[in-house]
Prior knowledge:
By secondary structure, the protein is α+β, with helices and mostly antiparallel strands. It has a domain at about 60-150: Nuclear Transport Factor 2, Chain: A, CATH 3.10.450. The protein is built from four helices and four strands. The protein has helices at about 1-10, 15-25, 60-75, 85-105, and strands at about 105-115, 120-125, 130-135, 145-150. Strand 1 (about 105-115) and strand 2 (about 120-125) form a beta hairpin. Helix 3 (about 60-75) crosses helix 4 (about 85-105). It is globular, with a radius of gyration of 29 Å.
Amino acid sequence: MKPLLIAAALLLLPAAAQAQVAAASVPNSFDQPRTQQPMPAIPAAAPAPAPMSTTPANPRSEEVLREIIAGGQSGALPYALMTDDLAGKVRAQEATVVPILQGFGAIQALDFVGSREGADLFAVTFATAATQWIIGFDESGKVAALLFRPAE
């Protein structure tokens, strides 16, 4: 009969009181930790990015970038140059990207800026916009990374 009365009393207690009762049966690991391990050091700041290289990571970067831009401006992006993953992502944005590329007008200048961690950065100036493009390739020579943004 006592266990039944205790169970009934627990049901009538507010939730906070029940939590305290339940917590009382769990050992407090803060009082006596099992092992004394030093806390890992927290870096003061993020590591600086690797310096930019003055040579392209891929000698085909400029040629392939020009082909991708021309394809976008003509309305037929060259998906065969891209990895399946990138092609799928670009296809999902094609309705937005193609009109933007077409609105930029003709390429006035395409200049290599540098490369870092296997990706090449280009400054591309169009008739109506100045942009930056990043292009990177996978081991098989397919474009695995492609990004463009307004020039800084």
